[in-house]
């Protein structure tokens, strides 16, 4: 505990702030800013594994936009993000409303509910892959026993069904996060408001729509925006369940970038595919910043 | 023990000029109270003395040394906060010892000082406890103890009694006064409560909108307020103000319900306002029910609107020709609402204020 | 409030809640059952007459034993623990002090830097992994734990920073002011007074960071190549599959055991975890 020259130098707010932020800024610059710049350079070059390459302008982008698989991947990503978000929000909200009541074992339930979100994604996804396996699927068994099907369903092998199966897993994983976050938001709403509304004659639905929902909106927005970014950039689910197949039908930006960049070694093209995500992400983050500023200034 | 000098002190926050040219000389061992409504700049001034706010212009000196650029830790001052600011993760002993540890005092010395301070404040039994286990009054004492152990040159108080309930506040006020008499350290005390200001201060400084309105001994502010604001701020219930016009001969002031002669002591100065409006000020305690012997020069009729019996006295809320007036009368008085009463004014306790500048006449 | 009839409660509450719980937890149950199911039973097709999905009459620990002795699983566990632990420490250190600076100090660049840290979310790992792979290789830390220990903080620090900012803002400013008047320098007030009070927040952030590290996949996949260096997620998905053949018993055992550390940490600190998660969302 000395108060020598270093202590005195750190008395100034801006000096102290500088040193406190320095480690963070160093790490973020080295491992985010610099790679990002390098990624842009890569995407504008024709480098491959082993060949440093040289500048070729937007040729990579032209190439990938002409690539039908890329277009499929782009479309997939958008649909994947949109559909799963809607389901996660709806189911998460429903679950949050259910958890908002008092019942025995509530804290246990709340703790267990988060497991899909806690457990490493890849590991739980493996369990789903096993459950979807066309020869051994427990779902097939169930539907067969319920006389809904005669022959097996190829959950992950059928091009149309595969995407739906993947989305189901994503929703499964995401609902707890939405539910717990929205539950926290619900708990900040003063119960007096509900009671006043009930006395005023509002029924369940009205109370929800006019009291709960508007007050929950700020938390909802933040949760949705975080989730959209994560989902848009998702990799693990598709990689484990289908690897992008069957026949490149379930690729997302991330998995296709991996396949091209790392799988076939075409680094520059892979980088271009990754970067193609950036405009959409930028839009989402800008929107998020704008929204947060709006809420803060109210 | 030190002299504190504030010279031409100014503070601007984001374009708001919150402290304007404050000049104050605080003598060694003096207990000075800065008082005023919220936003008057008293707390900001205190924080500048503490070193918690940057000074926009002007100087603050402690014992002839200008301290503008000294960090709080180097100013040798102690501060007691409104919310006590006790370190929640340390017990009472450690709370009090923290400052001494930071200054690298020896263990035996720390122990001696802490126990001494604890004894003065009567908190020896609480030394092992954590702040959350203490009551409001006890926390306040610990906060005081923390300040005392350091033997600082100046004590600073930022509304320390505001968070206590009324009864405790009265009790702590007395204890603070006793403490100050015992320790004889220079102190600057900020409050919005004029009762605290009057009872604690050797000198009271009234502030409004960043400007010092008046400074002086409590009774001086009470008896000779420099302007209408100070007159209305000091004393409770507040002074009554009636807008009146000075008669052309300068000997009377009149409003729709009141007509009073100007007391001889003020006659000369009031005469210069002949024909103009002046504000008449009368404290509730300067009024009483008129009896037969009272001269008509210093009394007036009024209608009783509300009677507030306080036990030791009765507050009469009356109306004299449209002007609401509060009078403090004997507890034995028996009047009823809607009754007409005649009130008499003590001519030695009349105040006049310029209608536009609000300065005392 | 008084609500309607009993059966309504069953339909509108117990049933949906029960369904959610079953749906959310079933895969884990499946993991456990598969892990202890002997191979003979395991590979019965779904329409086999003896298919009994929900339990097994001959539980076995063969898969687990197999996993721990015949594969590098324990090495992967060790790797992952080490990486998660060190990355969390680094991120906590950076995040706590950065959070303090942004929450408590006023300086010109505060707004911009706060936004900048927030905006790193714009560049998820799946955007950076290709150029980063090159950089990792250039610095010769490819195929070592350092590749991950140094890169994980990129997504852990922003989160820790926001979380700690929220915590610091809730601590009254008077405590630091008092400490400084008492004789502490600014940094001493931060270290001796504020940080001890913020310990619950630091704990929440640390636990969340730890679980996030375990969950990371693409950097681990791309930066590590030797089987001994891999982390659990990567090892389980790459080494337990030979060509087209999936060793489901070992896979599920790996998935199950691989989930245990995180589940344990989580179970001890549920409140802190939830506080961390909701704190970051509420901003």
Uncertain ranges of chain C: none
Quaternary organisation = heterotrimer
Protein structure class of chain C: mainly alpha
CATH class of the largest domain in chain C: Mainly Alpha
**Beta fraction of the residues of chain A?**
under 5%
Strand and helix order of chain C? HHHHHHHHHHHHHEEHH
Shape of chain C: globular
The CATH superfamily of chain A is identified as MetI-like
Measured as a percent range, the helix fraction of chain C is over 70%
What does this protein structure show overall?
The complex is a heterotrimer of chains A (298), B (361) and C (283). Chain A contains 15 helices and no strands. Helices cover 74% and strands 0% of the residues of chain A. Chain B is built from nine helices and 20 strands. Chain B has helices at 42-50, 92-102, 107-121, 136-148, 166-183, 194-200, 218-223, 228-233, 264-271, and strands spanning 4-13, 16-26, 31-35, 57-62, 65-66, 77-80, 154-158, 186-191, 203-208, 211-216, 240-246, 252-254, 259-261, 277-282, 287-289, 299-309, 314-320, 323-329, 340-345, 350-354. In chain B, the strands form four sheets. Chain B has a six-stranded mixed β-sheet with strand order 6-7-8-3-9-10, with helices on both faces. In chain B, strands 13-12-11-14-20 form a five-stranded antiparallel β-sheet. Chain B has a five-stranded antiparallel β-sheet with strand order 15-19-16-17-18, with no helix packed on it. The mean pLDDT of chain B is 91. Chain C has 283 residues and is an all-alpha fold. Chain C has two domains: 6-60, no CATH class; 72-282, MetI-like fold. Helix content of chain C is 75%, strand content 1%. In chain C, a hairpin with a 2-residue loop joins β1 and β2 (245-246). In chain C, 50% of the residues are buried. Classes of the chains: A mainly alpha (298), B alpha+beta (361), C mainly alpha (283). At the A-C interface, α2, α4, α5, α6 and α7 of A face α1, α4, α5, α6 and α8 of C.
């Amino acid at each position: 505990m000395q108060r020598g020259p270093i202590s005195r130098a750190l008395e100034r707010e801006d000096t102290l702030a500088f040193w406190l932020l320095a480690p963070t800024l160093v790490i973020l610059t080295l491992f985010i800013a610099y790679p990002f710049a390098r990624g842009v350079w890569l995407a504008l070059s024709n480098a491959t594994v082993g060949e440093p390459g040289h500048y070729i302008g937007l040729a990579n982008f032209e190439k990938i936009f002409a690539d039908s698989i890329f277009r499929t991947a782009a479309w997939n990503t958008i649909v994947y993000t949109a559909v799963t978000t809607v389901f996660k929000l709806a189911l998460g909200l429903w679950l949050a409303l259910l958890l908002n009541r008092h019942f025995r074992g509530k804290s246990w339930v709340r703790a267990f509910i988060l497991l899909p979100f806690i457990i490493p994604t890849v590991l739980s996804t493996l369990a789903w892959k096993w459950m979807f396996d066309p020869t051994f699927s427990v779902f097939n068994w169930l539907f067969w026993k319920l006389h809904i099907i005669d022959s097996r369903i190829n959950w992950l092998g059928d091009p149309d069904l595969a995407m739906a199966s993947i989305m189901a897993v994503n929703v499964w994983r995401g609902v707890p996060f939405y539910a717990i976050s929205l539950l926290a938001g619900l708990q900040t709403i003063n119960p007096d408001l509900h009671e006043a509304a009930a006395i005023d004659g509002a029924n369940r639905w009205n109370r929800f729509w006019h009291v709960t929902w508007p007050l929950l909106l700020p938390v909802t927005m933040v949760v949705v925006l975080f989730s959209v970014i994560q989902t848009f950039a998702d990799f693990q689910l598709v990689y484990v369940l289908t690897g992008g197949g069957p026949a490149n039908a379930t690729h997302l930006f991330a998995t296709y970038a991996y396949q091209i960049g790392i799988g076939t070694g075409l680094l520059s093209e892979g980088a271009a595919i990754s970067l193609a995500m950036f405009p959409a992400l930028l839009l989402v983050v800008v929107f998020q910043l704008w929204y947060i500023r709006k809420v803060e200034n109210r | 023990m030190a002299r504190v000098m504030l010279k031409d002190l100014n503070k601007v926050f984001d374009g708001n000029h919150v402290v304007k040219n404050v000049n104050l000389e605080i003598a060694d061992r003096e207990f000075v109270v800065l008082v005023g409504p919220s936003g008057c700049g008293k707390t900001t001034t205190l924080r500048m003395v503490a070193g918690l706010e940057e000074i926009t212009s002007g100087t603050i000196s402690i014992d002839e040394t200008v301290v503008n650029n000294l960090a709080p830790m180097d100013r040798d001052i102690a501060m007691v906060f409104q919310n006590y600011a006790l370190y929640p993760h340390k017990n009472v002993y450690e709370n009090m010892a923290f400052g001494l540890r930071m200054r690298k005092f020896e263990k035996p010395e720390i122990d001696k000082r802490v126990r001494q301070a604890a004894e003065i404040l009567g908190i020896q039994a609480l030394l092992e406890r954590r702040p959350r286990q203490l009551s409001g009054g006890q926390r306040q004492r610990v906060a005081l103890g923390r300040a005392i152990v350091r033997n600082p040159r100046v004590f600073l108080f930022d509304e320390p009694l505001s968070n206590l309930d009324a009864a405790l506040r009265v009790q702590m006020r007395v204890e603070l006064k006793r403490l100050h008499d015992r320790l004889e350290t220079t102190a600057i005390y900020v409050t919005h409560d004029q009762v605290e200001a009057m009872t604690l201060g050797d000198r009271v400084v009234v502030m409004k909108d960043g400007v010092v309105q008046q400074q002086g001994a409590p009774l001086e502010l009470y008896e000779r307020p420099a302007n209408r604001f100070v007159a209305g701020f000091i004393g409770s219930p507040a002074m009554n103000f009636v807008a009146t016009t000075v008669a052309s001969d300068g000997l009377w002031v009149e409003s729709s319900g009141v007509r009073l002669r100007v007391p001889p002591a003020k006659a000369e100065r009031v005469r210069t306002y002949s024909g103009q409006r002046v504000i008449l000020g009368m404290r509730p305690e300067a009024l009483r029910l008129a009896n037969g012997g009272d001269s008509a020069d210093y009394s007036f009729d009024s209608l009783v609107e509300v009677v507030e019996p306080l036990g030791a006295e009765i507050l009469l809320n009356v109306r004299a020709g449209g002007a609401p007036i509060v009078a403090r009368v004997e507890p034995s008085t028996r009047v009823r609402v809607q009754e007409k009463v005649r009130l008499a004014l003590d001519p030695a306790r009349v105040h006049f204020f310029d209608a536009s500048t609000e300065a005392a006449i | 409030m008084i609500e309607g009839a009993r059966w309504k409660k069953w339909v509108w509450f117990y049933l949906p809640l029960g369904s959610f719980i079953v749906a959310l937890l079933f895969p884990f149950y499946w993991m456990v059952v598969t892990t202890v199911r002997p191979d003979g039973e395991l590979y019965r097709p779904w329409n086999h007459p003896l298919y009994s999905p929900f339990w097994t009459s001959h539980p076995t620990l063969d898969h687990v034993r197999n996993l721990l002795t015949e594969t590098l699983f324990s090495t992967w566990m060790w790797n992952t623990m080490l990486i998660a632990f060190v990355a969390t420490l680094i991120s906590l250190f950076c995040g706590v002090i950065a959070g303090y600076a942004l929450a408590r100090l006023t300086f010109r660049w505060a707004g911009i830097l706060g936004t900048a840290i927030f905006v790193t979310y714009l560049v998820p790992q799946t955007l950076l992994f290709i150029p980063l792979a090159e950089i990792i290789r250039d610095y010769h830390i490819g195929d070592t734990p350092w590749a991950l220990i140094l890169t994980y903080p990129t997504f852990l620090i922003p989160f820790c920073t926001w979380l700690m900012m929220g915590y610091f803002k809730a601590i009254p400013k008077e405590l630091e002011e008092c400490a400084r008047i008492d004789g502490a320098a600014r940094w001493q007030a931060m270290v001796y007074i504020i940080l001890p009070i913020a310990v619950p927040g630091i704990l929440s952030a640390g636990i969340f960071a730890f679980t996030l590290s375990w969950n990371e996949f693409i950097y681990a996949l791309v930066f590590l190549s030797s089987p001994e260096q891999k982390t659990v997620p990567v090892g389980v998905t790459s080494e337990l599959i030979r060509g087209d053949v999936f060793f489901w018993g070992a896979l599920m055992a790996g998935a199950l055991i691989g989930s245990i550390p995180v589940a344990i940490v989580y179970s001890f600190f549920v409140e802190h975890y939830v506080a961390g998660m909701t704190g970051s969302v509420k901003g």
